[in-house]
Amino acid sequence: QVQLVESGGGLVQAGGSLRLSCAASGSILHIHTMGWYRQAPGKQRELVATFTSGSSTNYADSVKGRFTISSDNAKNTVYLQMNSLKPEDTAVYYCYARAIPFLGAVNDYWGQGTQVTVSS
Questions:
Q1: What is the helix, strand, coil percentage profile of the chain, to 5?
Q2: Which of 18, 28, 61, 100 is surrounded by the fewest CB atoms within 10 Å?
C-alpha cells in the first residue's frame, strides 16, 4: 500500500506564503501523478495542482501565478509553494497520488489533510 504524509500547513496573513510537503511511502512500484486538492467548509473538494511523471503540471485557474508545484522524484515527495495567499485559499489541503503498488493495481491515495488558514 501507499501512504501519504503531509506537512507545512498553518496560519498566515493575506499576502504571505506557505510551503506544503507530501511524502509518499510504502511498496510503490510507480507514481503516475501527485498533487494537491483542497476543501473549504461547505464546498466540494477541488483540484489545486498536480504533477505527473512526465513532468506535466496542471493548476486550478484560481492559483495560477501564485502557487508552484514541484517534486523530488528520488524522495517520492511533492511540494506546493503558495505565495500571495488570499483568505479564499483557506481550506484543508489534501495530498493526492495515483500510484501502482508492487502487489496491486493502480489506485488513488489521499493524505490526512493539512489546514491552511489565511487571515485578512
A1: 5, 60, 35
A2: 61
* CA dist list (Å): 30 to 4, 17, 22, 74, 83: 14, 31, 16, 12, 30
Per-residue CA distances from 23 to 26, 64, 85, 92 (Å): 10, 23, 23, 17
Entry field: residues in the chain: 120
d(C-alpha 53, C-alpha 70), whole Å: 11
Place of cell 506546493: 80
Q: Which three cell numbers stand for residue 23?
A: 511524502
Opening angle at CA 76, ends 17 and 113, nearest 5: 50
Reported as a pLDDT band with limits 50, 70 and 90, residue 20 is very high
Cell numbers representing residue 117 in the block: 488558514
Q: Tell me: the pLDDT tens digits for 35-80?
A: 999 999 999 999 999 998 767 999 999 999 999 999 998 899 999 9
Rounded to 5 degrees, φ, ψ at 75 are -105, 5
Q: Strand, helix or coil at 87?
A: helix
